[in-house]
Amino acid sequence: MLMQERAARRLRLFEIALMTGLAVFLASGALALQTGDQLADRVVRLHVLANSDSEEDQALKLLVRDAVLAQAEAILRQSSSRAEAEERLAGQLPALEQTARETIAANGYDYDVSAQLTDMAFPTREYESFTLPAGNYLALRVVIGQGAGRNWWCVVFPPLCTAASGDVPAAALAAGLTEDQVGLITESEGYVLKSKAVEFWQSLRERWD
Questions:
Q1: What is the number of other CB atoms lying within 10 angstroms of the CB of residue 49?
Q2: What is the pLDDT of residues 109-156, one digit of tens each?
Q3: Looking at the structure, do residues 75 and 177 belong to the same domain, yes or no?
Q4: DSSP code at position 187
Q5: Do residues 65 and 115 share a domain?
Q6: How many domains does the chain have?
Q7: What is the three-state SS of 39-74?
Q8: What is the per-residue burial (b if ≥16 Cβ within 10 Å, else e) of 111-137?
Q9: What is the rounded distance in angstroms from the CA atom of residue 79 to the CA atom of residue 97?
Q10: How far apart are CA 108 and CA 200, in angstroms?
Q11: Residues 171 and 197 in one domain
């Protein structure tokens, strides 16, 4: 009888610990999701789609990426907010598209190309020095030809694509991100758990919508 009571007590303690852990997991996920939503409102992604998955088209994609990224970062150099970045990019879409078209032609191709600003859903993405949680982000989207090949994406505002590893936090703060948002994208410790919790909450939100 005594052994059964001890076993039952251990089971209850285990259940309490499990529920506590689950509560912490969900709470951290809810907080990270809120921070991620606020983060998405301050970031502009760059999304480049290749014509196809052929080796030649994928190489061309990277050349177009480099040309558009350099021009976009020059355009956004004086921007201090996403709203300002969006306004500057919107006014320069024809010029960015022309740069992509000239790069394509200079490399012997005649693919059509389009550049637009659009809201897109992105999965969690890990880069060398930072990680962006899944969510809906404003993107500068460049489509080469059929746009049927593997894509490439990064962050054009703040200029995190080309920032050195140690410069990422400073670049993010200068663009108006909060310390919590910078911590979410740069702190590797515990991020996997946070991202899983964020994905869980996002799946629930999609079911409710």
A1: 21
A2: 999 999 999 999 888 888 877 878 778 899 999 999 999 999 998 899
A3: yes
A4: -
A5: yes
A6: 2
A7: HHCCCEEEEEECCCCCHHHHHHHHHHHHHHHHHHHH
A8: bebebeeeeeebebeeeebbbbbbbeb
A9: 20
A10: 46
A11: no
Radius of gyration (C-alpha) of the chain in whole angstroms: 22
Identify whether the C-beta of residue 174 lies closer than 8 Å to the C-beta of residue 84: no
pLDDT (tens digit per residue) in 149-205: 999 988 999 988 877 667 888 888 887 777 877 777 776 544 444 555 555 545 555
pLDDT surpassing 90 at residue 86: yes
Question: Are 156 and 79 part of one and the same domain?
Answer: yes
Three-class DSSP category at 124 = coil
Residue with tokens 């869980």: 200
CA-CA distance, 68 to 98, in Å (whole number)? 9
If asked whether residues 14 and 56 sit together in one domain, one would say no
- Quote the pTM value: 0.71
First vs last Cα of the chain: how many Å apart? 51
